[in-house]
Amino acid sequence: MTNSRAISALKDPMQQQLEHDIKELIISSLALEDVTPDDIDPTAPLFVDGMGLDSIDALELGLALQKKYGVSLSAESQEVRAHFASVRALAQFVTSQGKA
User: Fold this and answer.
1) Would you give the end-to-end CA distance of the chain in angstroms?
2) Domain boundaries in the chain?
3) CA 91, CA 99: separation in Å to the nearest integer?
């Protein structure tokens, strides 16, 4: 993503709301206790060094995203890894699918 797209994502209230909704979805679908949406940096990695999610979490989150937004995810797609890079990347994916 270019810097201008990243900056515009910060300014777009609809994008910010979608990011907030995805944070809530992560918290509820993964039963993360003592975590609030404000605790999750939208640009931080979801896996390993960031939130520390694992492959089981990815499957659960993928199912929750499919159920809530109707997005289509292929477990074998290399693009899926990019979509799951961060909350912001997930929000942009949902938006690109016309589901937000």
Assistant:
1) 19
2) 3-96
3) 10
Q: Are 99 and 60 in contact (CB under 8 A)?
A: no
3-state secondary structure the chain: CCHHHHHHHHHCHHHHHHHHHHHHHHHHHCCCCCCCHHHCCCCCCCECCCCCECHHHHHHHHHHHHHHHCCCCCCCCHHHHHHCCCHHHHHHHHHHCCCC
Helices (H) and strands (E) in the chain, counts: 5, 0
- Choose among 32, 39, 41, 35: nearest CA to 61: 32
pLDDT in tens, the chain (100 residues): 444 445 445 568 899 999 999 999 999 999 999 999 999 999 999 988 888 999 899 889 999 999 999 998 776 677 788 889 999 999 999 998 886 6
Topology of domain 3-96 in CATH is: 1.10.1200
